[in-house]
Write a structure and sequence with these properties.
mainly beta, 6-stranded antiparallel barrel, extended, 4-stranded antiparallel beta sheet
């Protein structure tokens, strides 16, 4: 299995080394414990991977108005053996159902590609899995900034502040072509939706592991807001 874990971004701080006098900026990540929900195999799925789940989801409430954040029956059936007509029919035909983790439904579920030897469904994965890892890749969703202009989205310098420029200092300028091709090419840098995209920050140093409190201290910044979900795995960059 690729050494990795799921977690949540807590925030940034700094660690001061009194011997060298160096302050290192770090991101605090609450990582795990994660539950192994499924194992993907080459024979059945065409690839090998370990499916992890992080943070329990609430059980359905009796009040229908408060069910938006509750676990649906299909989500509960993903992690527990819930009897149904379909499962009964498959069992009658001799089809063996996959192993269930026997835990609560999870809010954040991701798969880590790699071999599945030594990993079992229902097993708990903690931060200790990264003890011998020096550098990691962190995957998250960047902060959403809505509809942004070209200066914020693409770092344009803007128009001049003098000599005939009137009320268009932050505009993009001309985007059209000449008589040929008489159109704007696809991919032209313009204003538009900025952020809220999957971002991978690679080769970050792992400063410290706090197994007692399920915390990771990662050097530098990671994508996403405080409270955002993250995938932390051993980097494949040399």
């Amino acid at each position: 299995m690729t050494k990795g874990i799921l977690g949540r971004k807590v925030g940034m701080t700094q660690v001061f080394d009194p011997e060298t006098g160096v302050a290192t900026p770090v991101t605090v990540v609450e990582a795990g414990p994660c539950k192994v929900l499924q194992l993907r195999t080459d024979e059945r799925d065409g690839y090998s991977a370990v499916q992890l789940g992080f943070e329990d989801k609430k059980r359905p409430a009796k009040d229908r108005r408060s069910r938006q954040s509750q676990a649906a029956r299909s989500e509960r059936g993903h992690v527990a053996d819930i009897k149904s007509k379909r499962s009964s029919n498959l069992a009658a035909k001799g089809v063996e159902s996959p192993a269930k983790a026997g835990c609560e439904p999870k809010k954040f579920i991701r798969e880590l590609r790699g071999e599945t030897e030594g990993v079992e469904v229902g097993q708990d994965i903690g931060v200790a899995v990264l003890e011998e890892v020096a550098r990691v890749d962190v995957i998250g969703v960047s902060k959403g900034r809505g509809f942004a202009g070209v200066m914020k989205r693409h770092n344009f310098s803007g128009q001049r502040a003098t000599h005939g420029v009137k009320k268009c200092h932050r505009h993009a300028g001309g985007t059209g072509m000449s008589a040929w091709p008489s159109r704007t090419f696809k991919g032209k840098r313009m204003a538009g939706h900025y952020g809220a995209a999957r971002v991978t920050v690679r080769n970050l140093g792992l400063h410290k592991i706090d197994a007692e409190n399920n915390l990771l201290l990662i050097k530098g910044a990671v994508p996403g807001p405080n409270g955002g979900y993250l995938v932390i795995q051993e980097t494949n960059k040399k």
